[in-house]
Amino acid sequence: MITLKTPQQTAKMREAGLIVAAMLAATRAAVRPGITTAELDRIAAEILRKAGATSSFLGYHGYPATICTSVNDEIVHGIPGKRRLKDGDIVGIDAGAIVDGWHADAAITLPVGTVSPEAERLIRVTEEALRIGIAKARVGDRIGDIGAAIQELVEGQGYSVVRNYVGHGIGRAMHEEPQVPNYRPARGQANPPISEGLCLAIEPMVNVGRPETRTLGDQWTVVTADKTLSAHFEHTLACTAAGPVVLTAPKEGAAVAA
Ligand code: MF3
Ligand code: CO
Q1: Does ligand 1 lie within 6 Å of residue 103's CB atom?
Q2: Which atom of ligand 1 sits closest to the CA of residue 63?
Q3: Domain 7-245 is classified in which CATH homologous superfamily?
Q4: What digits encode the pLDDT tens for the residues 54-93?
Q5: What is the DSSP string of 81-106?
């Protein structure tokens, strides 16, 4: 079932989204060679605590941390821990917050120190894929239009979009219907219309090599099957008559540094 949100409800999700933006800004400011992913998790948890909000991820199907940190060939759902980031790595940071029962979810991928031109291009293309996906989230169009635009951009750059994980509706639960694939729907596949009040998390996952994935022995970390680099960007947005409103955008004029 797809649920549409009222403006009062999306206002709550915006509150959650501002906190997610602050978690990402603080972790972004802390990312440097030598920091551990557990330290990034602690920084994000502290922002949540001060805001009086809770993590969408901690405890979700037993997930053991506040955020996900996915390094290099890790696509999504990397668990923060003792791993030290090193110069040349890229790290995906994914965060979700709950305010009065309403969720917001967003992710960024960052260079650690100086990265290869390929890593830089991958990050740039993936962020651009999110941007054009959001632009396609127009009332009256269809969910499939989002993925079609993302896939065309990504494959045009010689990269691939992950098929095994997709974006999602979001609201009282982190994962609601509909699924939001980052690829064109096959004939006969669900392709619901975009209605006013629909809230979506759009989250392209882009691989330098092939789209296939593998899950590590920790049962969470998803990596590229061919060990190539992967990047991930995500925003939560509300679809309105005036166009998409990004609920996880940083506060207008807010300082980005922690
Ligand atoms: N942004 C991710 C998603 O939509 C976050 C989930 S991580 C989990 O699936 F740990 F909560 F599963
Ligand atoms: Co998500």
Answers
A1: no
A2: 10
A3: Creatinase/methionine aminopeptidase superfamily (3.90.230.10)
A4: 999 999 999 999 999 999 999 999 999 999 999 999 999 9
A5: SSPBP-TT-EEEEEEEEEETTEEEEE
